[in-house]
Amino acid sequence: MSVNDVHVFRPFKLVALLCVFLALVLDLVALLSPSWVTADHFSLSLWESCSQSEARTSEEGEWSCYPTLTTDWQIATLVLLGAGAVATLVAFLVALVSLCKGKRRQQYRTVGVFLFTAGLSPPHMFPLTHTL
User: Fold this and answer.
1) Which of 81, 86, 111 has its CA nearest to residue 19?
2) For this UniProt entry, what's an example GO CC term (predicted)?
3) Burial category of 64 from C-beta neighbours within 10 Å (exposed 0-12, middle 13-18, buried 19 and up)
């Protein structure tokens, strides 16, 4: 009597690691993006606000920029995005170690907790009560 061993490849750990990496990349893009809000003569990001003076000729007007981390809501947005990025980075590192080490089910709970925390921290979860 012979027993046939069947090995099934389940890419769940690899897909989970790819999703955490994608979340980390998108969080960094959100932090470093120079244009969150754009209009014809206005641009606002987390780091600076720029406006273009009206052009009197056919040339484009001069852009003037100033830092925007002077209001409370922008500092809170920066802190929340940073906390989410740190939690996502820790989750990515734990998932990477867990994938390389092998059978560590306890670490997946840790990854889940960090990703849940990171999901609660983005500023889109909280209504902004400011006017531009």
Assistant:
1) 111
2) cell-cell junction
3) exposed
Domain residue ranges in the chain: 12-122
Report whether 41 contacts 55 (CB < 8 A): no
Phi, psi dihedral angles at 5 (to 5 degrees): -90, 130
Neighbours of 132 (CB within 10 A): 7
**C-beta of residue 110 within 8 angstroms of C-beta of residue 94:** yes
Does the predicted model carry a pTM greater than 0.90?
A: no
- In the beta sheet, which residues pair with residue 15? none
CA 55-58-59 angle, to 5 degrees, is 65
Query: Can you give the pLDDT of all 132 residues of the chain as single tens digits?
Result: 567 777 666 777 788 888 888 988 888 888 888 777 888 888 888 888 888 887 555 467 788 888 888 888 888 888 888 888 888 888 888 888 877 776 656 667 777 777 777 776 655 444 444 444
